[in-house]
Design brief:
Blueprint (H helix, E strand, L loop, with lengths): L2 H19 L9 H15 L4 E10 L2 E11 L2 E4 L2 E4 L2 E4 L3 E7 L6 E7 L3
Parallel strand pairs: 1-7
Antiparallel strand pairs: 1-2, 3-4, 4-5, 6-7
Length: 116
């Protein structure tokens, strides 16, 4: 093999390695996006039709739960954001959630860190 062919082969190998190394990596998701995916899955699996939101604040280091949105069927999740009625909540601020089964229809209650 002469030098000219060896040089072309080296350029080809370098170009191939650069192309391979530039392939798209898997998208990194935020904690809020992962929580959104879990909540969406829970809503589907448990056939949740209503959502209620609370803001959690602290008084003398004790949690105080303030109802922010009454139960509603108007909600949607987009990434790390859940929209309930006309209010947007960041799922990164979600402290806990639970399904309330005390009424005829199960209600997903979401508890968010109070926005101070």
């Amino acid at each position: 093999m002469n030098t000219k062919h060896l040089t072309k082969l080296c350029y080809f190998l370098i170009a191939t390695l650069v192309f391979i190394s530039c392939s798209k990596d898997e998208e990194v998701k935020t904690d809020g996006e992962l929580i959104g995916k879990q909540i969406r899955q829970l809503i589907t699996e448990e056939n949740i039709l209503l959502v209620r939101t609370y803001l959690v604040d602290y008084l003398n280091n004790n949690p105080v739960y303030l109802a922010d949105e009454e139960e509603t069927g108007f909600f949607e999740i987009d990434g790390q954001i859940i929209k309930v009625n006309q209010t947007y909540y960041n799922l990164n601020k979600l402290l806990k959630y639970r399904i309330d089964t005390s009424s005829d229809t199960d209600v997903l209650s979401l508890y968010f860190d109070g926005y101070q």
